[in-house]
Amino acid sequence: RNMSSAGPEGRKKMRECEGLIDSLVYYIQGAIADHEPNDKATENCVCILHNLSYQLEIELPESYAQSIYVQRRNISNNDKTPGCFGTRSRKVKEKQQDTPLPEEKSNPKGVESLWHSTLIRIYLSLIAKSTRNYTQEASLGALQNLTAGTGPMPFAVARTVVQKANGLPGIRAMLHVSHPAVKRTAVSLLRNLSRNTSLQNDIAREVLPDLVSVLPECVPGCDVACETTASICYTLFNLTQSSSHNARLLLSAHGLPKVIAISMNDSNMFSKASRAASVLLYSLWSHTDLHSAYKK
């Protein structure tokens, strides 16, 4: 567990170690099957996998990167754009987000397991079944790592979490735990998921009222809570930016007074949370059909 946080070279060596990742996954599967999701060894295994999933898309061996990006490259070429990232147009951006991963292997080995749906479901199972804070945080953190980039892998993992594995109820429950680091990581994961335009309505329907309910009445004093508040505001920004319906959801959940109070906090005017709330307010005001409701 300590070695897995030793930086890029350490992660590379451990990912390449034959049988290591497979053994960790095997152990966790056994613990879940035996209804023992809270033992220390399971926590250690999940924390190692969490660390090995950090910067995974960037650090993948060339052979994996080529197989993952080939479909994306073809789509870009069809649109007469140079390479994978040659355009910023919204149309192509959405196409890139909807590009699926190559078909999953039924029996993944080694590094392939790190983004496979089997392990994604294991993380979601531990989030739902474990009461150990470090195990919950590491499971959420691994999913956060896997959904952090802008390539096809993060968006495919996001679709698996939201649509294929029905992971939102478990993540939503983590918004209401007392442990601040677990809550922060759950919000960060939702922020990553909410960047995927095709999932925004599902996420808003499932968790937007909960996100509003855990927003504080003003900018919190401690750094972790302040960071969590900022992440909630940016998640709400993603969910409401292009959807008047979702903005109305925020309004009906009584979120507007909270967002205004956070944005106007005098003592922390330049805090992350105040800035994020201001960005959210600016975006909400772009829905002109809601102006009369806002004023009320």
UniProtKB/TrEMBL annotation:
Keywords (A to Z) from UniProt: Cell adhesion, Cell junction, Repeat
Disordered, as annotated region: 79-109
Location of the protein in the cell: Cell junction
Record's keyword annotation contains Oxidoreductase: no
Superkingdom: Eukaryota
InterPro entries per UniProt: ARM-like, ARM-type_fold, Armadillo, Plakophilin/d_Catenin
Nucleotide-binding among keywords: no
SUPFAM superfamilies named among the record's database cross-references: ARM repeat
GO cellular component: adherens junction; cytoplasm; intercalated disc; nucleus; plasma membrane
GO biological process: cell-cell adhesion; desmosome organization; heart development; intermediate filament bundle assembly; protein localization to plasma membrane
Main location: other
Compositional bias of kind Basic and acidic residues: 94-107
UniProt record similarity statement: Belongs to the beta-catenin family.
Protein name: PKP2 protein
Upper lineage: Eukaryota, Metazoa, Chordata, Craniata, Vertebrata
Gene responsible for this protein: Pkp2
